[in-house]
Write the structure tokens for this entry.
Amino acid sequence: MLQKSPMYAYIPAKDVARARQFYERKLGFKPKREDAGGVVYEFGERTACFLYPTPHAGTSRASQAFWQVDDIAHEVSELKARGVTFEDYDMPGIKTVNSIATAGGAKSAWFRDTEGNIMALIQSL
């Protein structure tokens, strides 16, 4: 059944070349292969994402994907040093401090890619 199979994320891009610069230079992703005008990136635990061309990139107001990390403060610091800008939130239930929110048994941080997609880092508590 599906529960036993790896799941992959699709990341929409209006401009794949521009998005690749962000993901490969700022986030340090290594492309696995190019496919159908996009690119596949592989991660740990048999997971991956497909960065693909579409005019609808950046239209979702919700997170597109998240990475489960062990030390969110370290990851945020590393990504900031590479030029990634994190979102700041101050609303009922979510307030970021140094770009990190603590709520619901997790610490979270969000950033946007060059295409306007919201991505997240999550550390379970």
